[in-house]
UniProtKB/TrEMBL annotation:
It comes from Saccharophagus degradans (strain 2-40 / ATCC 43961 / DSM 17024). This is 2,3-bisphosphoglycerate-dependent phosphoglycerate mutase. GO terms for biological process: gluconeogenesis; glycolytic process. Substrate binds at residues 10-17, 23-24, 62, 88-91, 99, 115-116, 184-185. The keyword Isomerase applies. HAMAP family: PGAM_GpmA.
């Protein structure tokens, strides 16, 4: 079996990216620059003659908007397949806080560990917080005990890889042309698994907003090589 291609993209710039706020499961929209980034990504994909018949994304607007801009621009007539399992990693009580201000309060090293450590986690969002996902109608169909209050990258990897194996890989095997429009940490976690990265490698791995990534998936369902487009 020859390698099969899949395209992944981290959503384009959101309003909270622009303000330097921890976002996680919070749901800001794209900025005007973000919409331009998504349109540019679409035009680079079009130059390669790419078009998608399966588009997987999270339930968060910055990813669905990025996916919609690409789908519209490439004239892909398919509905988006949305799942919370492709959501950004849940950032617990950090959601809504300024990354820079927090580094001044608790130190840059602690903030780096919370952001990049594979198993590190900030304190959880209290269950009673009105910002908790269990009060958000987007998650009405989800078993409440599955909804996290905080996640490490390792937790994010478990749910994203589970979704990849159940939903995305079978579509690739079925010869669908697949786009996954998701989030920085979801994609770091997925690519770590697919490309067999070490913990040390993933801790130094950053994914920019709005730049498509082409991955070659081998017969074992793992990534043999990848590149930015
Ligand atoms: O959720 C967020 O704040 C960003 O989308 C990703 O954050 P990070 O760069 O801290 O991982």
């Amino acid at each position: 079996m020859t390698d099969q291609k899949v395209i992944m993209i981290r959503h384009a710039q959101s309003e909270w990216n622009a303000k330097g706020l921890f976002t996680g499961w919070a749901d800001p929209v794209l900025t005007p620059l973000g919409r331009k980034e998504a349109a540019e990504a679409a035009s680079n994909l079009a130059k390669l003659g790419l078009k998608f018949d399966r588009i997987y994304t999270s339930v968060l607007q910055r990813a669905t908007e990025t996916a919609s801009i690409i789908a519209k621009s490439l004239n892909c007539q398919v509905p988006l397949t949305k799942s919370w399992q492709l959501n950004e990693r849940h950032y617990g009580v950090l959601q809504g806080k300024s990354k820079e201000a927090l580094a001044k309060q608790v130190g840059a090293e602690q903030v780096w560990r919370w952001r990049r450590g594979f198993e590190d986690m900030p304190p959880p969002m209290p269950l009673a917080s009105p910002m908790h996902a269990r009060f958000d109608t987007k998650y009405d169909g989800v078993e409440p005990t599955s909804l996290p209050s905080v996640e490490s990258l390792k937790h994010t990897q478990i749910r994203a890889v589970n979704y990849w194996q159940k939903e995305v890989l079978p579509s690739i095997r079925n010869n669908s042309s697949v786009l996954v429009a998701a989030h920085g940490n979801t994609l770091r976690a997925l690519i770590m698994y697919l490309a067999n990265m070490s913990v040390q490698e993933v801790e130094g791995f950053e994914i920019p907003t709005g730049i498509p990534i082409e991955l070659n998936i081998n017969k074992h369902g793992r990534c043999s090589s990848w590149r930015y487009i």
